[in-house]
Amino acid sequence: APGEAGGRVERFPATWQELGLAGYDGVVWLRARLPLDAEAQLAAREGRLGLLLGPSSYGGYEVYAGGRLVGSSQGWAGGVVRPVSEVFSLPAETVEDGRVDLALRVRRIGWLSDRRPDAAPVAEVLLGSEPALADRIEVASSRRLRGDLPLLLLSGLCLAAVLNHLLLYGRRRRQREHLWFGLMTLGFALNTLASS
């Protein structure tokens, strides 16, 4: 049950700074009683209630609704966290008087979280129709991918130029400019990939 496994208990949604957890390293329990809007109430009646949690900032989490574990962030079990938004299905029994009691068991990495005290344990908290929330994440992911596509194409062209110049250098070892241009272009390609 939430709060039994040790750690501090705080309210959310709030930033690490608002929670006063600077320097804290370990498990934190965050609690909230969230009201359902009209769309979320309709989704709950139809058995499609979902919870969207934005990317976690430097730590993983487990999600509890109505005292029941409903899921965990990617990488929670292994300790390697991927900061991505996730949608969790909430059973109808978790809704009480038009509200949902939520608890997050967050593994906070102190030295990393303290770099950005204005960040929150999760970027956003939304209740609504599970399919609609999942579509929202998919659309955001597609936009991000489309935004990165030109940079990926540029990196591919640079890598082709690298290969060409290294092959030219392999045939004409005395012309070192091919080697240097190939290495410089490799740097451009890697920088472009890293910045996308």
Structure description:
- By secondary structure, the chain is α+β, with helices and mostly antiparallel strands.
- The chain has two domains: 8-139, Sandwich (Jelly Rolls), CATH 2.60.120; 148-195.
- 40% of the residues lie in helices and 26% in strands.
- The chain has five helices and nine strands; from the N terminus they run βαβαββββββαβαα.
- The protein has helices at residues 16-19, 38-45, 110-113, 130-171, 176-195; strands at 8-11, 26-35, 49-53, 61-65, 68-72, 86-89, 95-96, 99-108, 125-129.
- The strands form two sheets. Strands 1, 2, 4, 5, 7 and 8 form a six-stranded mixed beta sheet that branches. Strands 6-3-9 form a three-stranded antiparallel beta sheet.
- Strand 4 (61-65) and strand 5 (68-72) form a beta hairpin.
- The model has no long low-confidence stretch (mean pLDDT 85).
Blueprint of the fold:
Layout: E1 8-11, H1 16-19, E2 26-35, H2 38-45, E3 49-53, E4 61-65, E5 68-72, E6 86-89, E7 95-96, E8 99-108, H3 110-113, E9 125-129, H4 130-171, H5 176-195
Parallel strand pairs: 1-2
Antiparallel strand pairs: 2-8, 3-6, 3-9, 4-5, 4-8, 7-8
